Amino acid sequence: MKKWSSEDGEEFSNSAVCFGREYNPGTGHIDVAKISIRGTYPATGWGWLEDTHEMAVVVNGKGYTETKSGDRYELKAGDVVYIEPGERFRWGGNFDMIVPCSPTFDPDKHHLED
After folding, report:
1. Confidence (pLDDT) at 114
2. What is the DSSP annotation of 5-47?
3. Rounded percentage of the chain residues whose pLDDT exceeds 70
């Protein structure tokens, strides 16, 4: 078992509008991040993950997620989103979420495209 205090997580920033803290037990199997969205990320185009399954639980605020294929979902506290590996998507709004990833999020396998 491992336990972190909020400030123990590793800070990261994908952009000025997408930032947070990651909590990684070092197994390679799973991690979790507390992520804040304060605008649209990515600002243009789409993000996607090579082999990571990502889920998000919105804990406060409101926003949306949309996919390159045309799906759009409005988000509010309590909503849960699942994103498959390879799916092109983006976030928008002003909200915070808890995001577990499996296998562990790898920045080298996180891509942005127009």
Report:
1. 92
2. -GGGSEEEEEETTEEEEEE--SSSS-EEEEEEEEEEESSSSEE
3. 100
